Amino acid sequence: MSNVANSTNIMWHDCPIQKQDRQQLLQQKGCVIWLTGLSGSGKSTIACALSRSLHSKGKLSYILDGDNIRHGLNQDLSFRAEDRSENIRRIGEVAKLFADAGVICITSLISPYQKDRDACRALMPKGDFIEVFIDVPLHVCEARDPKGLYKLARAGKIKGFTGIDDPYEPPSSCEIVLQQKGSNCKSPSDMAEEVISYLEENGYLRA
Ligand SMILES: Nc1ncnc2c1ncn2[C@@H]1O[C@H](COP(=O)(O)OS(=O)(=O)O)[C@@H](OP(=O)(O)O)[C@H]1O
Ligand SMILES: Nc1ncnc2c1ncn2[C@@H]1O[C@H](COP(=O)(O)OP(=O)(O)O)[C@@H](O)[C@H]1O
């Protein structure tokens, strides 16, 4: 019996069908591809391009998008630092379950704090947390502004907007950096293919 936070007298129950069995069935390895970057950097677009490309190769993936999860599981959370941390913690735990199911789980959240991303990494077996920094400068994201949120933040109508009056900590070391700077114009599908190459080279697209 163990006690975990507020849950007392609980016991882990194992099933004889394990992650490895599910991976064999799917002919792939479960993992988490953690996309992080500013609002407007292209996380959702790249997540979809990646999922589409994996699908066409017969590989099962699932996207956990911050915006979408805030419509359901995380609708009780705001954009205060503690709530962003809880948002990331919960999505990290859900992503871990998907990876354990053998699925290539793609998360798409700003996830502005290094310590929160590191805590999600620590949940996973070594190598199975693949952090991808969408490195697009603020001025590019702000010029894109597809939802008009930067304009509202600059006008003071949204407080605590990431990159404007709330912090974003770029990864200090991560598996993949996808850059969109100066003359370096890559399409979302070019970026998705960089991630696919990483997965191929590291054996995630076979059991
Ligand atoms: N204050 C503030 N700061 C940043 N973003 C804001 C804010 N308020 C609303 N939004 C919208 O919420 C989306 C980010 O949600 P996330 O769950 O990814 O954020 S976080 O990881 O908890 O920081 C983000 O979506 P993306 O543009 O897809 O990143 C915004 O559309
Ligand atoms: N590689 C790219 N090159 C040019 N525009 C892009 C690229 N990736 C995304 N975009 C555009 O940038 C905007 C923001 O993309 P989105 O995926 O919504 O970002 P995020 O999920 O990080 O907020 C969209 O209008 C999208 O079409």
UniProtKB/TrEMBL annotation:
Pathway(s): Sulfur metabolism; hydrogen sulfide biosynthesis; sulfite from sulfate: step 2/3
One GO MF term attached to the UniProt entry: ATP binding
Superkingdom assignment: Eukaryota
UniProt entry tagged with the keyword Nucleotide-binding: yes
A GO BP annotation: cysteine biosynthetic process
InterPro entries from the UniProt entry: APS (IPR002891), APS_kinase_dom (IPR059117), P-loop_NTPase (IPR027417)
UniProt cross-references to Gene3D superfamilies, sorted A to Z: P-loop containing nucleotide triphosphate hydrolases
This protein's UniProt keywords: Amino-acid biosynthesis, ATP-binding, Cysteine biosynthesis, Kinase, Nucleotide-binding, Transferase
EC number(s) stated in the UniProt entry for this protein: 2.7.1.25
Similarity remark: Belongs to the APS kinase family.
Biological function: Catalyzes the synthesis of activated sulfate.
Protein name in UniProt: Adenylyl-sulfate kinase
